[in-house]
Amino acid sequence: MVDLRRTDLAIESRELYKSDSGREVPGVEVDQEKLENITITRVNIFDPQGSMTMGKPMGNYITLEIPDMRMGTPEFNHYVSRILSIELNRLMRRFPIHNVLVVGLGNWNVTPDALGPKVVSRVVVTRHVFEFAPEEVKPGMLSVSAIAPGVLGITGIETADIIKGVVDRIKPDLIVAIDALASRSTARVASTIQISDTGVSPGAGIGNRRTALDYSTLGIPVIALGIPTVVDAATMANDTIDLLIDSLIKATPQNSQFYQLLKDLNRDEKYSLIKEVISPYDNLMVTPKEIDEMIDDMAGIVAEGINIALHSNMYQ
Fold first, then answer.
1. pLDDT tens sequence across 4-22
2. Which of 24, 205, 286, 299 is the most buried (most CB within 10 A)?
3. What pTM, to 2 d.p., does this model score?
C-alpha cells in the first residue's frame, strides 16, 4: 500500500482505498455535485473506523476540483471565489460567529509554501474598526483579524504556540487556517481547493508534521482551507511506473512469461525501492516552474472567497 501520508487530500485517501478494495470506505459518506467547470466532492468521515482507514480526523472535507483554475480569467477566478465562499459558509454557519481569526500558515520565503501568508495580506481585517470606530461598522461585517505566524525555522517558536497566545488574547469564535498542501497527483496541483472543519496539521503532507491546530489544542473550531502546491517525487514516480506496468499487462499475451513476471511484481517493494533511490534528498517534492504566478492567482481567489464569506454585504 502506498504511503497515505504523502497526500493532504481526503478525496485522494478515499480514491486509494476504493481502487484497492473496490468498495467505499466504511464509516464514510460521499456526495458529489457538478457545476460548470467545477466538481465538488463532500466527504464526511463519521465514525472512528473511517477515520483510521482514511488516516484523517472525523469530520467534513469539501473538495473543489477546478481544472481551469491554472489559467482562469479574472471573471472565472471571481466565479470560483463565489463558489468557495458558499462552501466555506456551509461549515461556518454551524457555529455562532462574531469574531474570526484568519491564520496564514507557511513560509513566505519559500514560494510553494507561501500561500497562507499571501492570502492573509489580502484578507479584509476589521477588528480594529469594531474596537476603535464602531460607527463605521456596516451590516454583514464580522470582526476579522489575521496573522501569518511564520514557521519554526524562522521564529524558533512552534506555530501552534504563537496562535494559542493570540487566541488567548483576542478570544476569537473561529479560526480559518490557510495552508499549502501536498497531493498525490500533478493534475490536482494548483487546481484543487480543500476545506475541512477538522483543523490542520502543518507540514503533514511533506512528512514534517507539527502540532495540530484544532479544537483540542486551541479550544475553538478550526476550519482549514488549502490548495496543493507540491507532489511527492517518490509517489509521482511510483504512479508513473504503475501506469506503465498496467499498460504492458494489457498489451501482453496472458500465456507469456513476461505477462506472469509483470503480474508478480510486488508494488509495495517497488515503492520502497524508489524511496531508497531518492532518500539522499529526504522528502523530495516537485512543484510547477510557474508556481510564483500560480501562488499569486490562488491567493487572490482564496482571499476573495474568504472576504465574501466573512463580509457578505460588502460584496453584494
1. 446 889 999 888 888 778 7
2. 205
3. 0.86
